[in-house]
Design brief:
By secondary structure, the protein is α/β, with parallel strands linked by helices. The strands form 3 sheets. A 6-stranded mixed beta sheet has the order 3-2-1-4-5-14, sandwiched between helices. Strands 6, 7, 8, 9, 12 and 13 form a 6-stranded mixed beta sheet that branches. It is globular. About 6% of the residues have low confidence. InterPro entries: Actin, ATPase_NBD, F-box-like_dom_sf, F-box_dom. This is F-box domain-containing protein. Belongs to the actin family.
Length: 482
């Protein structure tokens, strides 16, 4: 401990010498007797440190690092109180934690998600949070496998990684579609674990589930329960130690640092508008579904290219052009009169130049009829969902459903969030439209994966977020989150 104090004192001495040519007190290394006095005095930090401003000492401890700071807390009660300063540990969480999550994401997760599911509507422990305690817990959280089972393709990887490490066909369309669900799921998860080169028995698993069986009917509830049971049965037969299965829409909302709102998930084949209150999908309010997804946008762009005699070799080329050149116009009619030409080189294929096709592709989200689709426009479906939320009167005000989060790769189209917000203001009554905020996918096509990452790095994980094999066999009446 004396060596540690000398290290801190050396940092203080160097700082004071560099800050002033005539230091206000004599700089010298602490003697053994002074260190002993510091350790035994519970009312001060020690004679050598009491004269130093606390904000300077905090800066010094930042340089010392979290491990040595913890050791200093063992010296005395005064040191213990001093090193527990939340400002210090917020800095350590920002700069030393191995997961690399942004501070605002860490704060959101620890404030709103650490108690587990069901979420607390109004967290009462925010002022009681000890970030020193949280730092220590997060350092001991085991790594988890995260699988985002998207509707088009899934993303998988370790929770300690900065982003997903691989992609695969989704389990909903994996293998032989005519095979029994158990066989398909077993094949899917075995393939993912093989690609990650990890045994299923070693780490907890967080799985995002694409929303399906949308209604609040008994048959829809039974279908959701059947899929849930099939997933858990397969994973526990593979001896996965703990499983956390959460709706893809809920995870996308968490990634936007929200627990309530409306998630507009533009999937592979359909678009779903999902109301979520305190992390729970509100099936009773109603999930709006539009028979229009990323595949239809790609197909429509292909038709436009063919009409304009633009040759391409595969849908991969069309999808690449959609993802890199297409956008959503703020005003469709005005955009038609503009020169919107832009070019892109598709690797190993060649150069392509698009003009009006760039914004005509995304326009079918708002005017499906121009692509021959008989469905509501995206803004109409969201407005209908908001009307239902307002009529349900689930809370004392309407603020909870006025945050709208886009998810899915197509949700990343430039201009989509702004156009949707504009259309909603024109469609809804002023009272409902007031305060609306549309948020683009916070992490692009990987948004749901990052929402799962927030959960996996919680200081209390796995806690009540996960189900074990023993709990599953007991058929506990856990709330379904998806």
């Amino acid at each position: 401990m004396s060596t540690l104090l000398r290290k801190v004192w050396g940092s203080v001495s160097n700082r004071m010498c560099s800050a002033s040519p005539n230091p206000p007190f004599r700089i010298s290394s602490p003697s053994s007797s002074s260190i002993a006095a510091t350790s035994s005095d519970s009312s001060s930090l020690g004679a050598l440190f009491d004269s130093i401003p606390l904000d300077i000492l905090l800066q010094i401890l930042r340089l010392v690092g979290p491990k040595d700071t913890i050791k200093l807390g063992c010296l005395s009660r005064a040191w213990r109180l001093f090193v527990s300063d939340n400002r210090l540990w917020i800095y350590f969480l920002q700069n030393y934690q191995r997961h690399g999550d942004p501070w605002d994401s860490v704060f959101f997760a620890e404030l709103n998600l650490r108690a587990g599911y069901p979420l607390q509507p109004f967290p009462s422990h925010s002022r009681e949070l000890s970030f020193m305690h949280i730092y220590g817990q997060r350092a001991q959280v085991p790594g988890s496998v995260i699988i985002d089972g998207g509707s088009g393709y899934c993303k998988f990887g370790w929770s300690k990684y900065a982003c997903p490490s691989g992609r695969s066909a989704t389990f909903l369309e994996f293998g032989n579609i005519e095979s029994p669900m158990y066989s398909r799921l077993r094949h899917f998860f075995a393939t993912i674990y093989s690609r990650m080169q990890v045994r299923p028995t070693t780490q907890p698993l967080i799985l995002s589930i694409p929303l399906c069986h949308y209604d609040d009917t008994d048959s829809a509830k039974a279908s959701r329960r059947q899929l849930k049971d099939a997933i858990h049965t397969v994973l526990f037969d593979m001896n996965v130690p703990a499983v956390c299965a959460v709706s893809q829409a809920t995870l996308a909302l968490f990634a936007a640092r929200r627990t309530s709102g409306i998630v507009v998930n533009i999937g592979f084949q359909v678009t779903s508008v999902v109301p979520i209150l305190n992390g729970k999908v509100m099936h009773k309010v109603g999930v709006e579904v539009i028979g229009l997804g990323a595949l239809k946008l790609t197909g429509y762009l292909r038709e436009l290219l063919q009409q304009n005699n633009i040759n391409f070799e595969s849908l991969y080329t069309v999808r690449t052009l959609k993802e890199n050149l297409c956008y959503v116009a703020a005003d469709y009619k005005t955009e038609l009169s503009k020169d919107t030409r832009a070019s892109l080189e598709v690797p190993a294929v060649g150069w392509f130049t698009l003009s009006k096709e760039r914004f005509q592709t995304g326009e079918i989200l708002f005017q499906p009829r121009i692509a021959g689709v008989r469905a509501m426009g995206l803004h109409q479906a969201v407005a209908l969902c908001m009307d239902h939320c307002h009529a349900a009167e689930l809370t004392g005000d309407d603020a909870w459903f006025k945050t709208i989060v886009l998810s899915g790769g197509t949700g990343c189209l430039p201009g989509l969030a702004e156009r949707l917000e504009k259309e909603l203001h024109e469609t809804l009554s002023p009272s409902l439209a007031n305060g609306i905020k549309v948020i683009p996918p916070p992490h692009g096509a990987d948004t749901a994966w990052f929402g799962a990452k927030f959960i996996s790095n919680l200081s209390t994980f796995p806690g009540s977020w996960c189900m074990t094999k023993k709990q599953f066999r007991r058929k506990s009446k856990a709330n379904i989150m998806w």
